[in-house]
Each structure stands twice: as structure tokens, then as C-alpha cells.
Design goal:
With 88 residues, the chain is mainly α. It has one domain. It has 4 helices and no strands. Helix 1 packs antiparallel against helix 2 and helix 1 runs antiparallel to helix 4. The longest helix has 20 residues.
């Protein structure tokens, strides 16, 4: 579960980026993930070093969820939280 409120040092944009990156890794093969990553970096305009750091963290998180066999749970929780942060 996600905390009710993220730590003060986590911006809304950072939280959204992290969740989008994890979802890319959960739902894509290597080639598709690379294309999605390139598009996301272009969309956000984040410099390469910061983006690489976020990307690697997301990859490790997704691998952990996969290893635990909880991909569907992770996807559901991430989508719920994204819905809270980005209402339609």
C-alpha cells in the first residue's frame, strides 16, 4: 500500500513519473519498454542523468514485484494512485 501522503520531498510530478516508469516495466518487453522510455523522457524533458536514475529504480521495483508474483497487485495499486494524482 502507498502511504496516505508521500514524504514532503516527493513532488507530485516525481511520484507520477515513478509510477509510469514502473508500469512500463511491468507491461512491456525490452524493446517496447525502450521505446516507451524514450517517449516519456522526451515528454517530460528531464535531463538524461536524472531520468536514468529514475528508470533504474523503476526497473528494480518492477523486477521485485515480478519476482514476488504480484504484478497484478502492483499494477492495480499504481493505477489507483495515478487516478488519485491525475483525476479525469
Amino acid at each position: 500500500m502507498f502511504p496516505a501522503t508521500p514524504p514532503k520531498w516527493v513532488s507530485r510530478e516525481s511520484e507520477i513519473l515513478a509510477m509510469r516508469l514502473i508500469l512500463i516495466y511491468l507491461d512491456s518487453d525490452t524493446d517496447a519498454a525502450a521505446i516507451h522510455m524514450w517517449a516519456l523522457q522526451d515528454e517530460t524533458g528531464i535531463d538524461w542523468i536524472a531520468f536514468e536514475s529514475a528508470r533504474k529504480s523503476a526497473q528494480l521495483a518492477a523486477e521485485a514485484w515480478q519476482r514476488w508474483g504480484r504484478v497484478d497487485d502492483a499494477r492495480r495499486m499504481l493505477m489507483e494512485r495515478l487516478g488519485e494524482l491525475m483525476p479525469a
